[in-house]
Design brief:
Blueprint (H helix, E strand, L loop, with lengths): L11 E5 L7 H14 L2 E4 L13 H13 L3 E6 L15 H5 L4 E4 L4 H9 L5 E2 L12 H11 L25
Parallel strand pairs: 1-2, 1-3, 3-4, 4-5
């Protein structure tokens, strides 16, 4: 597996919307956190919903690749999940993207992109996105986000919720 470089303040992070756009009030707090930490933040056009404009699949894929191939960009952070990532594959050159590993971050509908990059040997980060921080979070959530993105082993604090078993048993599946 190819592990991308950890981030450090001063690096450039491209925030893109391969799944769905969002109103600024849903992601601005997350962008502010990145900037306050000292990161340069590039915001993709497809993130912002425009009146009478629905970003099509090829535009979202082009934006993702533009961010990926930009030599200044050290990480590609998806702003949110939503719907539509699976439709990007005809427009993506995944093999060329895999030759230039970057830290790729997101979850939800972004999972299909994680799986594609993982199959090509890239390590990705299944983690919170800017939209996650539109609501107040416990301080340890943000600290773990920084720890993982910046290459430190996160420590799960004692106050973090513990997993519970809803229905005990054994399961199998593909």
């Amino acid at each position: 597996m190819i592990k991308p470089q950890a981030l450090k303040p001063g690096d450039t992070i491209a925030v893109v919307a391969p799944a769905s756009p969002a109103p600024p009030e849903q992601y601005q707090a997350g962008l502010d956190l990145l900037r306050k930490r000292g990161y340069n933040v590039l915001v993709g056009e497809c993130l912002v919903p425009h009146k009478n404009q629905r970003w099509n699949d090829s535009a979202r894929a082009e934006e993702l690749q533009r961010a990926w191939f930009d030599p200044e960009v050290k990480a590609v952070l998806c702003a949110r999940g939503g719907y539509g990532c699976a439709r990007l594959f005809p427009y993506l050159n995944l093999e060329e993207m895999a030759k230039q590993p970057k830290l790729f971050i997101g979850f939800s509908d972004i999972t299909i992109l994680h799986l594609a990059f993982n199959r090509l040997g890239l390590v990705t980060l299944y983690a919170p996105m800017p939209i996650t921080f539109s609501k107040p979070r416990e301080p340890w959530v943000l600290q773990m986000w920084w720890d993982v993105m910046e290459g430190r082993s996160p420590q799960i604090p004692p106050e973090a919720p513990k997993p519970i078993t809803v229905t005990p048993g054994v399961a199998e599946g593909e």
